[in-house]
Specification:
With 283 residues, the protein is of the alpha/beta class. Helix content is 49%, strand content 18%.
């Protein structure tokens, strides 16, 4: 059964652990992630970017795949299906209408007044259907789905204003993380993170979780981070495993065997994050 992510994040916020968001790219990845989370009794958020929606074949296809796998695999841990970085009200509405249980409206590229206006439109629609909403302040650096950004740190004042005026369920304040692979050592503003968390008292979200040192992840959770997004790391370990498989079996052409060659690598990465984030046995 799909749920929105609000209850799981509130629980994580109170108990000081983080729920993993693993982005999905196809049926196999979704299956691998669900099986590993079920095996370790961890709640999970399945993140889907707009690019991944197109690759799947549409919002309804994503929902059908996820719901069918939950039923067939007998998944009992809490699972949220979340639109990651929804770029418009229209994208969020399509996701909601197609059965997604959570959406992120990312209007962070606009001035804060416009960010608030757009976010409010999504919240008003989402609340009618009991859908959880995430928003962003500042700009996470790096590139995702071909969209590149420079890091723009969130201010405490803008975070307060957006949360107060929109009634969102969780906030992603940009505090130094990036999408994709880091160039050099990640430098998160943990002091500001703690201050934002203390003032707002709602779950915070860390985007660009791949490549951040374990100790920094642990400190971030202490500072109010209740959801951490992982995408690039799964892509990297899967690609490496598949390349190694194709070197050993260069005559292989069965796509099921090729794609499945990355299963163990993805599941190990998922387990590592479940343990690191503290979501093990929290399902």
């Amino acid at each position: 059964m799909l749920v929105n992510m609000n209850e799981m994040l509130i629980k994580a916020f109170k108990e000081k652990y983080a729920v993993p968001q693993f982005n999905i790219n196809n049926l196999e990845w979704t299956k691998f992630i669900l099986e590993e989370c079920q095996q370790n009794n961890s709640p999970v958020i399945l993140g889907v970017s707009e690019g991944a929606v197109k690759y799947f074949g549409g919002y309804k296809t994503v929902t059908a795949v996820v719901r069918s796998l939950i039923e067939e695999l007998k998944i009992t841990v809490p699972v949220a299906l979340h639109l990651d970085h929804g770029s418009s009200v229209e994208s969020c509405v399509k996701a909601i209408a197609s059965g997604f249980t959570s959406v992120m409206i990312d209007a962070s590229k606009y001035p804060i007044e416009e960010n608030i206006r757009i976010t409010n439109e999504v919240v008003k629609i989402a609340k009618k259907y009991k859908i959880s909403v995430e928003a962003e302040v500042g700009a996470v650096g790096g590139a995702e789905d071909g969209v590149a950004n420079e890091i723009k740190f969130a201010t405490i004042e803008e975070c307060q204003e957006l949360v107060k005026k929109t009634n969102i369920d969780c906030l992603a304040p940009a505090l130094g993380s990036v999408h994709g692979l880091y160039k050099g050592e990640p430098k998160l503003n943990l002091a500001r993170m703690m201050e934002i968390s203390t003032i707002l008292s709602i779950p915070l979200v860390l985007h660009g979780g791949t490549g951040i040192p374990d100790e920094t992840i642990k400190e971030s959770i202490k500072c109010g981070i209740s959801k951490i997004n992982i995408n690039t790391e799964l892509q990297v370990v899967w690609a490496l495993a598949v390349r190694e498989f194709l070197i050993l079996y260069d005559k292989e052409y069965d796509p099921r065997k090729i794609i499945n060659a990355g299963q163990s690598a993805i599941k190990k990465a998922v387990l590592d994050k479940i343990v690191l984030f503290g979501s093990y046995n929290k399902g």
